[in-house]
């Protein structure tokens, strides 16, 4: 009751009091916060029931106003006070203790706004980057914590600042030296620290809220092992909140692009980033159905990571496994873009890991299987992956995965040294290779039983190919007089019809000796007539062979139009 009365009284005093010079006003708000801990014995009330959030916001406003009133890069007295009195260290201690409840959120928000609003570089200051680094360690500790949103906002603003000044990342690379980890400060300990007299002078190093834990900047790069901001972001990628996951992935994207060699080395060797990429890619791939229509795989809409919003109810082109396929392609796009943006040496390591832990370990067994349906699905997925990947390093590793790293000429003795390459080439010569695709499409069709080829035709009644085939055969018969693009369409339709797995279609279109009766046409008889007509026309065309070669060159783009 007393704390609430004090809270109301202080607000009334603030409203009636005349405005103070900025530094006095800043010190007043900070001391109002410290007095809360000195005077309040009951710290179980949430921080939102106190005046702490208001004082913190006032301090931010004062710092922002002070900077706007001074020349660029000049540090004002309020900022000097914040730095010399290690206010960020104290706030970190309060946030770690979460005293009063909800204080961690307030501290995270204060750090985020401070780094975001102040234009002058703050991270180079020891009394800024040291507490920032400590606060980073608190992020991502607990999955689905109530502070997740504030944690990711704080981490992302730090990533953005590192992107602006990449050399600052050296302050965030720590030697992996185990120091005694002090217990979380109690409210009593906090009050004792805040109750010490304020002399107005910089605090001695030993008076900090916690023992100094200053990481050595990358002087001895061989000893660097910890990259805590990456670790915290990796933990937040496991959040059940999709928005948090996307923001964490964005933060990682910024960090991998930093050009500092020490950071790139630490990123790939001493964090679990490589494992995150490959483990999640493998999990999404294994969640796909074992059998999928290749046409569905090829035609599913392109996806961008973080934007794979999918509504099953509104999808008119839904098919089994579409949600899983979109999730896989979305994460593949993220891996591809991450490697594309990464520092060069980091990109090579990440791409090699994807090749080893995903392509070789997960995909290769699927491509080597003997199941017709399984190999069809895995080959279609491989084709989709190849078409989607754009990063140079990952494309290079995919080429090595498919073709091997040997650069010498292939011989009969070495033809099977790369089993996967040999297998994929063999599949191109498979009797049922074509694009099997139509068998998969036609499995849903009702053929009204299992049709068989006819032993003989009823020659007493005239045979009619039907209007559809009549038009196609007529078009085929006029192939010598039709435009080139029309001929391509006609032959394409006839080719697809010939691939349909129906014995009657095979018999009528592909059997050159079929006898359908007098005056009846087959595809073979139409082609024979066309060839005969072609031979007659050749005789009437002077210099036919050179002209034929010229046309062929023009079709291949080897000869410009207009030359005779």
TrEMBL record:
Supply the Pfam families for this chain. DUF5917, RAI16-like
| Sequence ranges assigned to domain FHF complex subunit HOOK-interacting protein C-terminal in this UniProt record | 465-557
Disordered: region residues: 180-221
Q: Where is the composition biased (Basic and acidic residues)?
A: 207-217
Q: Which family does it belong to?
A: Belongs to the FHIP family.
* UniProt-recorded name of the protein: FHF complex subunit HOOK interacting protein 2
- Tell me which species this is from: Salmo trutta (Brown trout)
From the UniProt record, report the name of the gene that encodes this protein.
FHIP2A
